[in-house]
Structures are given as C-alpha cells and as structure tokens.
Here is the input.
Amino acid sequence: MIRYPSFIIVFLIVFVAISLYQIKHFITQKELELAAINKKVIRAESDLNILKAELSFLKRPNRIEKIAKNKLYLKEISVIDIWNLQHLVEVTKSMAESEVK
Here is the structure.
C-alpha cells in the first residue's frame, strides 16, 4: 500500500521531470534563435566590408579628378589662382576707400 508521503514524492519527481523538459525545450529554442541572429550578423558584416571596398573604389582621387574635369568642367589650380590673404585685405580696403570718396 502506497502511503501519503509516497504520493508527494512521485508528484515532485514528475513535476521536476516536466519542468526540466520545458527548460531544455526553451533553451533549445533560444539557441536556434541565437544561431539565426549570428548568421544575420555575419552576413551584415560581409555586406559592410563589400560596401567599404566599393566606397574606397569610388573615392579614388584619379576617378574624382576625371569626373571633375569632364562633368563639372573644373580645371586645375594654377599659381596665378593662389592669392595672399593680406593682399586681398589691402585690395578690399582700397576699393572701399575709393567708393567712399
């Protein structure tokens, strides 16, 4: 004959077994989610590396110079184009004085 304390022990054993199964199932699901997220991170890092390579290709000075000359009609800076700032200040002062008079 099974007594009252034996029922409690059997009930606790069954309860612990079910709880352990639920915990194991929950952990397995979380591990699968983590693996999927890690794959997405690796894919994003790979895409980022590709975009960095493409950006460095597009930012080449030779390429930008060709575009500037052909599309924007820019020219190279010559020595004549470089001015001394003090000279500019003097010229603007003299122009302002001549306008006042």
User: Anything to note?
Assistant: The helical segments are 4-58, 61-70, 85-100.
